[in-house]
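tool=predict chain=A
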Amino acid sequence: MFRQKMKTPLSISLILLLAVQVTMAQSTYQEVYSLFQTNCTTGCHSGSNPSANLDLGGTEADVYQAIVNVDPINPYALNTLKNKLIDPGYPERSYLLRKCNNGMDDELALVNVAEGNSMPSGLPAMEDHEIEMIRQWVLWGAEETGTFVDPAMIEEYYTNGGIADIEKPLTPEEEGLEGYQVRFGPIFIAPGDEFEYVQIHEIQSEEDKEIIKMAGMMHPYSHHWVLRDFDRDFAAPLGAGPNDATTTNAQAYVYLHAKYMGIWMYSREMELPEGTAIFQDSSAVMLLNLHMPNYSQDSICKASCYYNIYTQDAGSGAIEMIADLKQYGNFDPWILQIPPDGQEHMYSHDYTIANETFYYWNIQGHTHGIGTDFDVFLRNPDGSKGEQIYEAFYDPDYNFNTGSYDYSHPPVRSWPELYEINMDWGLVLEASYRNMSSDTVTFGYTTEDEMHIMYYQYTTELPQVSITELEFEDSYLTVYPTPAEEVATIEIRGDDVFNDAEITVFDMYGKLIFRSQNLNGKNIRINRNGLSPGIYTFAITQNNRRVSSGKLVFR
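tool=predict ok
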């Protein structure tokens, strides 16, 4: 599902987005072709009767046509794993690469005896850096021309080491859950270098799904890791390999044709609130986005990031969770100008939408290196700042105030029960900066530039939470109906009764809105009495001791 977006002609899009190329003596495919010629043509994949009917002994053009986007003849690889010999952009779906893998990377391993033996058959395996060269060619789109990879850097990494990649996490399937795993990378980054890339990823699903949980596992050097749904009609200009995302044209193209699903500044799980889901079509195209600096000045960095996507069948009745961003200046973010005077400067702007109510799940501030703080306030009807609801001095999981701001790991504040905000009044977003350099710093996409962005996820209505989900931890109370129109009843189970009990009810801000004492019997009835729709919490005490707590939902 895609919200309506402005359309960009494909001819212009093809000009706007080109993969970054490094000028080398040989193209990347020529390097790979030489490896196949050297290792795979002796006695196997050449001559009049080549093994698996695959001739790798022809010209560069002949070999390219024989392997790229070509079905393998192995039935298991073709029908069960849905592999191509070489599937551009997808190393893990490229059977020929997996046959050459020989333990270089467990994710490329042959998984069933029906796939046959590793190659080259009867000869020593290729060196790890050679296999990596083939993988990088596939990852970068398996282009016939152009240079995308520095073979000397890859050989240097495998010979002398460098900053290690992260370990592969368990997949949802390995955890016994429904879902799939996506990997971006590995990408090799020179010492002190930095990149931001986007890459299309097609999921292999024949059914619509609802995403109920996402987990992002990032290399510790990563600046951010973003997942988006991308409009399939506009995916073709991006090609199969990674694209440079540090240009304004690239970012504008992505913004126009994609919608956010999630953003990670550090490794963490995001389990959606009960009754909500991110909707994913079976024809969905995903856009992977990694921003990655190499902080080491003397070591090559090998970096991967992973998404675990946990799903359920579509049609559960869940409310759609929406993700978006709000940036200073809106479509003209370059109005952000931080002077080089060493003083702290605060930039504030309002975020309002007429006739809208949002139920926020989480919010997260975002700046780059000279950012010193990021705060979010409720906006009062007269336009003044109200209660502060986000403070960037908190730890990443928003448990405690650390007293300082870490722009590379800003906190994420979540409301699992959703936070209702009248967007007619809206929010006030503030970010502060201190520029100690000799030049004005303005908006841009590297960490040397700046940003003033709030990421957030929300619904436009409350989910229908079931009664069973609102039962207490000790399971001896029930709340019904859920949600309630005017009166909610808290009922004690079994033979017990309330005896001189007290109940207190709080709104989502923690404000006490109701208290009743000396309650007796099996039921407590809570009248709405003008309360707004939303989720409220209650606590029950007896003899000054809390005996239970729970939630009330009014429609």
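The chain has four domains: 23-149, 179-316, 323-459, 468-554. The first strand starts at residue 179 and ends at 189.
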